[in-house]
Recover the amino acids of this structure.
């Protein structure tokens, strides 16, 4: 393998981004992912275990981990505790957090602002974060979220390009 090939491979590798999808049961994580890759969203089974999808977007290879639903129904308060604990995890140092406030097509959905308060996002200083309202069903604002997270990661990690 020539040096150029090695460099090219390294570059490809560098442009890989791992995204971990976490959220309440039934929040729409799998639907968001399927919608994004253009798969049929009408037949979505509850996720068993996990599901890894690889997709290309804006020159980046995204490895998205869609984690199966937990058996017990978490409430928002547990979600907040869990999120803040997770951010202390060493292996997530330097990770970027994007919160999708999904199902905005439903009248009862918490707004982005309400969710931001409920999850106490404003107290997060250790990570770059952003909250984006969206609807996986209509597809509205999904790309805005994904574009934000890619731009954030790219600006911090791939600055040499
Ligand atoms: P999960 O992977 O987070 O557990 P799923 O959630 O993607 O399996 O979605 C759970 C249910 O929520 C699905 O409905 C799905 O169609 C619905 N859903 C996901 N996103 C949206 C959205 O933006 N708006 C609305 N109205 N519904 C959404 P079913 O009926 O199959 O359980
Ligand atoms: Mg799922």
């Amino acid at each position: 393998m020539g040096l150029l090939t090695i460099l090219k491979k390294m570059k490809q590798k560098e442009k890989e981004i791992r995204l971990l999808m976490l959220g309440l049961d039934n929040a729409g994580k799998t639907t968001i992912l399927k919608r994004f890759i253009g798969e049929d969203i009408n037949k979505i089974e509850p996720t068993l275990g996990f599901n890894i999808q690889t997709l290309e977007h804006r020159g980046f290879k995204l490895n998205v981990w869609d984690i199966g639903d937990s058996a017990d129904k978490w409430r928002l308060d547990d979600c907040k505790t869990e999120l803040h604990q997770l951010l202390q995890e060493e292996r997530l140092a330097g990770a970027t957090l994007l919160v999708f406030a999904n199902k905005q097509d439903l009248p009862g959905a918490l707004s982005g602002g309400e969710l931001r308060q409920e999850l106490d996002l404003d107290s997060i200083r250790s990570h770059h974060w952003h909250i984006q309202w969206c609807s996986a069903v209509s597809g509205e604002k999904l790309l805005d979220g994904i574009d934000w997270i890619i731009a954030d990661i790219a600006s911090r990690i791939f600055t040499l390009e």
